[in-house]
Design a protein that fits this description.
Elements: E1 4-6, E2 13-15, E3 20-25, E4 28-32, E5 42-44, H1 48-57, H2 59-64, H3 73-87
Antiparallel strand pairs: 1-2, 3-4, 3-5
C-alpha cells in the first residue's frame, strides 16, 4: 500500500510517487526533489496545468501555511525547465 497525497493544483488524490513535493524556504517556493525536506510540503502533479492552477488559486500559501506572498521565481524556472524536458527540447 503506497501513501496517497492530494494535488494542490487539481485537488485529485494520487500516489506519492506520481507527485512532486514543494516546500518553502523562508518565503521562497522550491522543489523538494528528495521528498524529504523538513516542514510542511505541498504536493503537485508534475504538469504545467496543475502548477498554473495552484499558482492562480494561491494554493501554495494555504497548503504550506505561509503568511505573506511567496517568491515563486525558482519554482517557475524549474517548471519551465521541466516542460522543456517533457517536450524533448533543450
Amino acid at each position: 500500500m503506497e501513501p496517497v497525497r492530494t494535488c494542490v493544483g487539481c485537488r485529485t488524490r494520487a500516489p506519492r510517487t506520481a507527485l512532486i513535493r514543494v516546500v518553502s524556504r523562508g518565503l521562497e517556493l522550491v522543489i523538494d526533489e528528495r521528498k524529504a525536506a523538513p516542514g510542511r510540503g505541498a504536493w503537485l502533479h508534475p504538469s504545467r496545468e496543475c502548477a498554473e492552477n495552484a499558482l492562480r488559486r494561491r494554493a501554495f500559501g494555504r497548503a504550506l501555511r505561509v503568511s505573506g506572498p511567496l517568491d515563486t521565481q525558482t519554482f517557475e524556472e524549474w517548471l519551465n525547465g521541466y516542460g522543456n524536458k517533457v517536450n524533448g527540447s533543450k
